[in-house]
C-alpha cells in the first residue's frame, strides 16, 4: 500500500491561530512507496530529490543505487524550451569521459556557434545556448564524440 491512511475523518482539523494546518496523518505516503520523489518540480517547496505524488510531502527519502546515477549510454535530449527566445537549454549524457563537440548550425548547414569543444567527464551535462543576434528560424545542434554523433532541430522565434 502506498498510503499510511485513507480515512477521510483524519483530514478534518482546525487551523492554528497563525493560519497553518496541524500535521495530520491522512494521505501521507508509506515508507518505500514508489510515489515518493516521483513528481515533477513545479517550483513549490518539497522534501527529497523531487515532489511526492501524495497529498503531502513525506519525510521518507528514496534510496538511490550508485549505478542509477550513471548514464547507461550516450544521449542528446531535445532542447528546452523549444521554440525558444533567446535562450534554451541543451542537455546530454555521456557514457564515458572524452572529447566532445557540441555545435549549432543554421538551416543551410553553416556553423553558427560552438558550445562545447573539449574534454568532458562521464555523466549528465547541461549547456545554455543564447541565440544572440541570430534571426528567427530553424537551427540544428549536433553533438560529436569518438563513439557518438547525433543531431536535433530547434526553433528560434523572435
Which secondary structure elements does this structure contain, and how are they paired or packed?
Layout: E1 75-76, E2 87-94, E3 98-106, E4 111-120, E5 123-130, E6 137-144, E7 149-156
What does this structure look like?
Helix content is 0%, strand content 34%. The protein contains no helices and seven strands. It has strands at 75-76, 87-94, 98-106, 111-120, 123-130, 137-144, 149-156. The strands form two sheets. It has a four-stranded antiparallel β-sheet, with no helix packed on it.
Query: Could you tell me the radius of gyration in angstroms?
Result: 22 Å
Please indicate the percent range of residues in DSSP E strands (runs of 2 or more).
25-35%
Shape: flat
H/E element order:
EEEEEEE
Structural class estimated from helices and strands: mainly beta
Quote the distance from N terminus to C terminus.
50 Å
Give the number of helices.
0
Helical percentage: under 10%
Kindly provide the name of the CATH class of the largest domain.
Mainly Beta
What is the fourth-level CATH superfamily of the largest domain? Immunoglobulins
> Major β-sheet, in short?
4 strands, antiparallel
Q: How many structural units, i.e. domains? A: 2
Assigned CATH architecture of the largest domain: Sandwich
Say how many strands there are.
7
The neighbouring-strand order within the major sheet is: 4-3-6-7
Give unreliable regions as ranges. none
Could you say what the CATH topology of the largest domain is called? Immunoglobulin-like
Mean pLDDT: 76
